[in-house]
């Protein structure tokens, strides 16, 4: 299976907007890459859960209403089937970033009604204890980091959030991101049981790579 590859440089309020594809840079992680990697159910679920968690976190931080409404958490396998159907129906869009395509597909499939408000997250969020456990394994940490940063860049590109929280140096590497994340988690053990996985990734990356 092709390894996850993602670029270091990677107003959904009450109004409707037309989503734009976030550009997949030369080293970017595209929709085509996601289709290939989701042959591995474990990596696929980690990516999807982390992407949605980051989406929810960033909207909460910026007081923007989510466009995804569900009555109860969904099965990642079922959600992936919906996303894969959407991606396969539009092969011309596959060079765009996996995050932009996935968020777009989720917002369409689980759109809110005119007066409905989100009742729960699309997936039950994982906490920092899960994150620390997963990120001791490089292969499992990789899709988590990619997904969180992909969601962040997508919402910046779409101008859903007012600005960047994280500005990664162009020369930074996945190995550095992971080590910095583990260092932050080790220094803030009290936060692990009370914060979601994506919120801790965003906080750690923002602290290490501020804009």
Report on this structure.
This protein is mainly alpha-helical and 211 residues long. The protein has one domain (31-208). The protein is 51% helix and 0% strand. It is built from eight helices and no strands. It has helices at residues 31-37, 41-61, 76-89, 98-109, 128-134, 138-157, 174-187, 197-208. The longest helix is centred in the first third of the chain and has 21 residues, at 41-61. It starts with 30 loop residues before the first helix and ends with a helix. Mean pLDDT is 84; it is low at 1-27.
Number of helices: 8
Q: What's the Cα radius of gyration?
A: 16 Å
Q: Using DSSP, what is the number of strands? A: 0
Low-confidence runs of at least 5 consecutive residues: 1-27
The helical percent reads 40-55%
The end-to-end span amounts to: 34 Å
* Percent of residues in beta strands: under 5%
The largest pleated sheet is described as:
none
């Amino acid at each position: 299976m092709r390894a996850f590859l993602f670029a270091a440089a990677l107003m959904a309020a009450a109004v409707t907007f037309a989503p734009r594809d976030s550009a997949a840079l030369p080293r970017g992680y595209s929709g085509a890459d996601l289709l290939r990697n989701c042959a591995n159910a474990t990596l696929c679920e980690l990516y999807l859960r982390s992407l949605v968690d980051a989406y929810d976190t960033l909207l909460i931080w910026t007081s923007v209403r989510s466009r995804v409404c569900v009555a109860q958490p969904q099965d990642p396998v079922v959600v992936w089937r919906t996303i894969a159907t959407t991606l396969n129906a539009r092969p011309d869009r596959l060079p765009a970033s996996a995050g932009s395509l996935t968020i777009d597909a989720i917002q369409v499939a689980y759109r809110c009604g005119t007066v409905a408000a989100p009742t729960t997250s699309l997936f039950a969020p994982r906490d920092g204890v899960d994150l620390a456990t997963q990120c001791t394994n490089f292969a499992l940490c990789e899709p988590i980091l990619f997904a969180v940063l992909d969601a962040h860049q997508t919402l910046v590109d779409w101008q859903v959030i007012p600005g960047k929280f994280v500005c990664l140096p162009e020369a930074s590497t996945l190995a550095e991101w992971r080590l910095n994340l583990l260092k932050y988690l080790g220094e803030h053990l009290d936060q692990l049981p009370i914060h979601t996985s994506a919120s801790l990734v965003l906080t750690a990356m923002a602290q290490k790579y501020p804009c």
